[in-house]
Amino acid sequence: MPVGTNATVKSLDPDDLHSIGAQIILANTYHLYLRPGHERIKRLGGLNKFSAWSKPILTDSGGFQVVSLGPLMRIREEGARFHSHLDGSQHLFTPERSIEIQEALGPDIAVAFDQPVMPGSSERRDVLRAMQRTHRWAVRSLRAHALEEQALFGIAQGGIDPELRAESATYIRSLPFEGINLGGLAGDETPEERNTAVEATIAALQGDHRVRYLMGLGSPVDLLEAVLRGVDLFDSVLPARVARNGQAWVTGGRMNLRNARHLDEDQPLDALCDCSTCRRFSRAYLAHLFRAEELLAYRLLTIHNLRHLSAFMRAIRLALRSGTLAAELPRLRAAAGGPGTPRLGVGDEPSEEPARGAMRPRYAEDGRLRGVNRQRATAREGRE
Fold it and tell me: Which of 114, 222, 235, 270 is catalytic?
């Protein structure tokens, strides 16, 4: 699922998403609640009409974004109280409030409110406490959910502890959700730790035919490994985010368009890609756009990365349907290329381990709000 945080996949319109083969997109409850407001979106006809997207939409619960506020957030049994990263105003998200917001937004799939933790660097007691609270919040989310035409997915937590993962999956599968999410991964864990956690979760779901959705995972090699372990659905901002930094995913690896050697290359990004970017533009032109800081660069590379990922996932689906996945694994792994999570570096294929800590607070620094600090600094400059 391409991620449209603010009811838009950055730099793209719905026609672009249709052309790359997107079947469903994700929108963000936390961000849309703060701006422009879920009640306004409801008055304007819901997310589909608001964003002119005719296919399904899934909204996350806002739990991950709230936890990402770090010291600007306090979790109690009632819910999570936090300060907006936009203006510092205080808010409270409870399971009931999250469901109310998602019902107002009107997506096809809503998600139960949960408490994720940093998977690789959290104490077991903290992981256990968050998992048990997630279970209680799952029940409250189900009780609050009243929109019959909207599916509701539950979230299994448990960090990277196989026993906790199995325990959480066993509990969540006992509840009447339409799908089961694997939450709290794609953070600061290693690929090996993630794979072990996924295997423990999937083992506890054997015989359960509901969709399995691993939240936040987005690089080709990681997606392939998760599919092999039994996961069905994914979302990630990664394809669009690395595109805005000049990184293109291509067959066999990735390409850094900020490298000077691409300025004289007259071939497409990927000769095997059928996206509009590869059909029309050269690497030299794209490399020029990035150096000139032209907005078209972000749009063209986002189109390519999302189409590359869509085509890669389609190839996996076709191999599954035809029963040839085992035979095609070497080719698929070679096509994925690169480390598990793309790292922005000076080379096209950096050999370092991917940066960790994706779940660290994004909106706060030293316990203060980044956005509010900028606003205050701007105000001071104006007065001076």
Answer: 235
